[in-house]
Amino acid sequence: MTTQPALDLDLLRAAVAxxxxxxxxxxxxxARAAWNLLADQRPELIVAAAGPxxxxxxxxxxxxxxxxxxxxxxxxGAAAPGALTGTLLIRTDGMNDVTVDPAERTARAGAGARWSxxxxxxxxxxxxxxxxxxxGVGVAGYVLGGGLGWLARRxxxxxxxxxxxxxxxxxxxxRHVDARREPDLFWALRGGxxxxxxxxxxELELVALREAYAGALLWPMARAGEVAHAYREWIRxxxxxLTSSLRLMHFPPLPALxxxxxxxxxxxxxxxFVGERRDGDALVAPLRALSPAIDGVGVxxxxxxxxxxxxxxDPVPDRSRSxxxxxxxxxxxxxxxxxxxxxxxxxEVRHLGGALRRPADPGAAGAVDAEALIxxxxxxxxxxxxxALETTFAALDALGxxxxxxxxxxxxxxxDVALPAAATDRLRAISAAQDPDGVLSSGPTTGxxxxxx
Length: 453
Known about the structure:
This protein is an alpha+beta fold and 453 residues long. It has helices spanning 6-15, 28-32, 52-65, 115-122, 139-144, 152-155, 183-189, 224-234, 277-288, 330-338, 383-399, 421-434; strands at 19-21, 45-48, 68-72, 87-91, 98-101, 106-110, 127-128, 162-169, 174-178, 197-205, 207-208, 211-220, 242-250, 265-273, 294-295, 298-301, 319-325, 346-351, 372-378.
């Protein structure tokens, strides 16, 4: 790790309102930590940006010093060891301001905002955003990677519902990006990652929703095969106003978990339906006929949808793999049930289709032509657990991918193909035009992965 000259750091500190943190200072380890505890991030130095001007100054400093620059808020999507070598890390956590325009049904979210911030600001107006299964992920990283959430089958990816971006270029200049002024870059940022710029805020479209019919049904793991095959048949009958997932869960024996879940192996079917309760009851009736051990489905405030999956809110060590599948076949279901090893914390099927197949104004993420996304994650605490995870990941590779890609950008790991080939080629050209010198790192530093783990 290099050490920057004191004079240069003094100049940087004078230029930014936020803190400049170096490896020999108190608070370094906390500042460099990602949400995924397996990610051992070791940048050259960190700027805790207080606003977009700080981001611009940090980029200009990195360019002058021969460093790369990368932005990060929550770090849900950060990769494991070695990331950010030779890089100035710009933490945007403090840029978490959110403003809502109820008349326009829009929200402007700073690069450090989490979906919980947007949900809280929009709810008093009877509005909500197209957030993911967990409200704790970062808005910017999630949207830049497409964004697959509880309203996806009705409205599509979150990235298809963006009005504009505020960005900092690789030259350290601030710029407004929308469909009229910067159509190519606007396309690229909607699902294609950073595309050679750093996003400092996003103007999002909101949807009117005060409550939904949502929650979870749970069964003992011994009934996984029966429930999983019933789920496969059931999703073929539901309307686009219903989005769901099926999880085979091995809950660790942690005191923070409710006693009913602690240390247990359970099948969890979670859903959100936008419609009347009587219609929701009719849709869920075939599942209730399977006599779940726990029935937590009912009418809930829209603001609670980011909590119904029960995803962890605190940082965790995690490895994961995902694959899109064109069709969820009976053989695929049997394979998944057989893979429900205690070392695999989550083995999940997310039902796709609906509006995901036919976006009105698609960005780089494009249309998602797959019936389901399969996701697996776990904690490789021992060699045996590491081997079990690798076996599971290899089996998922054999199930997928869909016709044009392995997975979606917010779920992608190293080596995964997350965009169709034509989109990848276009995105590469746009990114090169925006950042020909490769100053801005486009690696695994976004904060919006919605992994469900």
